[in-house]
Amino acid sequence: MLVTFILLPGMEKAIVRPFKRPNALCRLICFPWAGGGTSHFAQWGKLFSSSIEVSVVRLPGRESRAKEPFAKDMTAVINEITSALLEDLQEKPFAFFGHSCGAYISYAVAVHLKEKHGLEPIHLFLSGVYAPHSEAFLLMGKVNEVKDEDILEHVKFLGGTPSEFLKNEDIKKHLIRTIREDVSILQTYS
Fold it and tell me: Thioesterase domain location, by residue (predicted)?
């Protein structure tokens, strides 16, 4: 299935809204997992009722932003997402959904919006994530010590990545780098 991505004025390339619903009652902003892009969540825009408009965060270094340098820290990510969404979030209620690495980023953006702009989501959905004080979270900080093969095995174990992607050397290398870069962002947020 072909999904057309609509880049909205003022949102530049950081936010994708595949199915624009100006009369929606609420916006759901989705934050993908480490190494993830927009394609999975883009489908949600079609599946939800017309009362919910789905947007997806697209970080630098992937998809149409593949030639851009990866973000170096959580502050840069927070600032870019906030800048892209701020006007939009003042129009109607919104919720965040973050999965895995995206859960941490969505939480950080929610805290920033509340502290700096007095805005907060009506709900913050988090999935597939460890508590920031857990041993598993602390082990993620050692992602640069993990062998490429072990990262790929974990990706295969989790599922969701087409096997033909994992057979392509360029795609594999980019996926591993993207995962490493995304996880390293988490280490810059306290």
Answer: 27-189
